[in-house]
């Protein structure tokens, strides 16, 4: 994987995102935030066209950090829009970005993505580091239709980002079915 087109990961007190665990339960991190984040910043795992920092910038969202990662136990599904749905033995790739929490609220208030719901995830990052994040997903009942233009644009973006070949093939199949 490459990080072409991505912002550098912020170094300093946030050099390595960390997560808080309780009672040895890694899922307890789902409800926690990065220890280095304040209430104005949010770590969001993007897996669709919002992985494109220039698209976000065109909407007034300016990530301060970005890196490629993945979440296990979720699979990418593409209908009219993309969503991640829980699926055993699956892996979904995307970009973990640190953005302003108000920007996230504004971004997901747009009509085309207003049905998306924030869900906690743990993102696997390079260097065997994990970070808790929020991931906005469309509920399965609302996933409908096909959108060949969206699927093709997602394939082009995922290719540009250097996501793994097997994942690109998964998106190619969605393009073919659209």
Can you put this structure into words, describing what you see?
By secondary structure, the protein is of the alpha+beta class. It has a domain at 26-77 and 85-141: Gamma-glutamyl cyclotransferase-like (Hypothetical upf0131 protein ytfp). It has 4 helices and 5 strands. The protein has helices at 53-58, 101-107, 148-161, 165-177; strands at 41-46, 65-78, 82-100, 117-125, 129-137. A 3-stranded antiparallel beta sheet has the order 1-3-2. It has a two-stranded antiparallel ribbon with strand order 4-5. Strand 4 (117-125) and strand 5 form a beta hairpin. The relative contact order is 0.22.
Describe this structure in a few short sentences:
With 178 residues, this protein is of the alpha+beta class.
Number of strands: 5
Summarize the amount of helix as a percent range. Answer: 10-25%
**Low-confidence region ranges:** 1-36
**How are the strands of the largest sheet arranged?**
1-3-2
Give the end-to-end Cα distance, rounded to a whole number of Å: 26 Å
Shape: globular
Total number of helical segments? 4
Query: What integer value in Å does the Rg equal?
Result: 15 Å
On the 0-100 scale, what is the average pLDDT? 82
Structural class: alpha+beta
Q: How do the helices and strands follow one another from N- to C-terminus?
A: EHEEHEEHH
Main sheet properties: 3 strands, antiparallel
What would you say the CATH architecture of the domain at 26-77 and 85-141 is?
Roll
Fraction of residues in β-strands: 25-35%
Question: Could you please say which CATH topology of the domain at 26-77 and 85-141 applies here?
Answer: Hypothetical upf0131 protein ytfp
Q: Write the CATH homologous superfamily of the domain at 26-77 and 85-141.
A: Gamma-glutamyl cyclotransferase-like
């Amino acid at each position: 994987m490459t990080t072409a087109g991505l912002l550098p990961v912020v170094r300093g007190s946030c050099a390595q995102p960390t997560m808080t665990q309780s009672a040895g339960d890694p899922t307890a991190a789902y409800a926690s935030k990065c220890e280095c984040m304040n209430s104005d910043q949010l770590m969001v795992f993007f897996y669709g066209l919002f992985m494109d920092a220039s698209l976000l910038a065109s909407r007034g969202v300016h990530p301060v950090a970005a890196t490629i990662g993945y979440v296990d136990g979720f699979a990418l599904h593409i209908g009219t829009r993309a969503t991640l749905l829980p699926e055993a033995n699956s892996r979904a790739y995307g970009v973990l970005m640190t953005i302003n929490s108000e920007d996230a609220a504004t971004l997901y208030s747009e009509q085309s993505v207003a049905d998306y719901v924030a869900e906690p995830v743990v993102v696997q990052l390079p260097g065997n580091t994990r970070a808790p994040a929020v991931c906005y997903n469309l509920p399965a009942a609302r996933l409908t239709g096909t959108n060949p233009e969206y699927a093709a644009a997602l394939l082009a973006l995922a290719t540009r980002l250097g996501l793994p070949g097997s994942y690109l093939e998964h998106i190619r199949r969605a393009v073919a079915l659209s």
